[in-house]
Specification:
Layout (H helix, E strand, L loop, with lengths): L2 E10 L2 E3 L1 H11 L3 E6 L20 H14 L4 E3 L12 H9 L7 E3 L1 H4 L9 H9 L4 E4 L8 H10 L5 E4 L8 H7 L5 E4 L5 H11 L4 E2 L22 H6 L1 H5 L2 H16 L4
Parallel strand pairs: 1-3, 3-4, 5-6, 6-7, 7-8, 8-9
Antiparallel strand pairs: 1-2
Length: 270
């Protein structure tokens, strides 16, 4: 079994990830369940510049669209609502959508890089109140700018021991060493494998055990065959996770990372 905890749909900036690509790739590459967030809530481009307002959508509208996809495929798709943490906060309608769709909503998604807002900012307390009230883990991009540094998510996790937090990417574009060290400092702080070299995941397992890491991929960011190759045709990192990694760790450790930790942390029942 494989549960991918980091999957996207939506069209924004240079990315176009239709729901059909998610379903195609899951079927072709043996993914049993995917947790999906919608990139149409991105607030800034890759240079930190605000995306023009005429190209943006409200987080309520984006959540409605994401829920439609998941509701039609609830046996294999769950939702991680992406919050626009620079410009918006959960309003009455957003909270009602959470309450009415709790069966297919498994956590909340933050993207400090595409919002240039740190997860330990005091303005996010209403987000964490919502997460605690509905027992929703918080998954957050880490890496690429000061606001997205893993230490900022650690600060939020330390302040909110009642909420589980996931460091997506474990500091993208680094050697992952800081994020790996932080994993062991709090019981409610986890990491994922999205663009994380297998060697870093092995270091995390050796240091803290296999219960602290979840499989994630960014699928289908490189197209419908993201699990197989990148746009240039080079072998995908995730082929290593599906194949070589399986021979490097025990079956229990492999299963923990590929699906058991996700089932436990997000309450996925498949």
């Amino acid at each position: 079994m494989i549960i991918d905890t980091h999957v996207h749909i939506g069209k924004m900036l240079v990315f176009d990830m239709p729901p059909e690509n998610v379903l195609y790739s899951m079927d072709k590459y043996g993914i049993d369940f995917s947790l999906v967030s919608n990139i149409e809530c991105a607030e800034n481009d890759h240079n930190g510049n605000p995306i023009p307002q005429n190209l943006q959508k409200s987080q309520n509208a984006v959540l409605e669209k994401t829920l439609e996809f998941a509701r039609a495929n609830s046996d294999k798709i769950g939702v991680l609502p992406w919050l626009k943490i620079r410009q918006e906060r959960p309003d009455e309608k957003f909270i009602k959508m959470i309450a009415d769709n709790r069966d297919i909503i498994y956590g909340l998604k933050l993207h400090p890089f595409h919002s240039t807002t740190a997860p330990d900012d005091e303005s996010l307390e209403s987000v964490y109140k919502l997460a605690a009230e509905y027992s929703l883990p918080v998954v957050s991009h880490t890496g690429g700018c000061p606001e997205a540094d893993s230490l900022r998510l650690y600060n939020a996790a330390k302040k909110h021991p009642e909420i589980n937090f996931v460091m997506v990417h474990m500091d993208l574009g680094t050697d992952n060493s800081q994020a790996i060290e932080l994993l062991g400092k709090l019981p409610n702080l986890y990491g994922d494998t999205t663009w994380v070299p297998v060697e870093s995941t092995l270091k995390a397992i050796n240091k803290w055990g296999s219960e602290k890491i979840l499989f994630g991929s960014d699928n289908p960011i490189d197209g419908k065959d993201t699990y197989l190759h990148n746009p240039k045709g080079d072998r995908s990192l995730y082929q290593q996770y599906f194949n070589e990694f399986k021979t490097m760790v025990s079956k229990q450790d492999y299963d923990n990372i590929m699906y058991r930790n996700a089932k436990r942390l997000f309450g996925i029942k498949i």
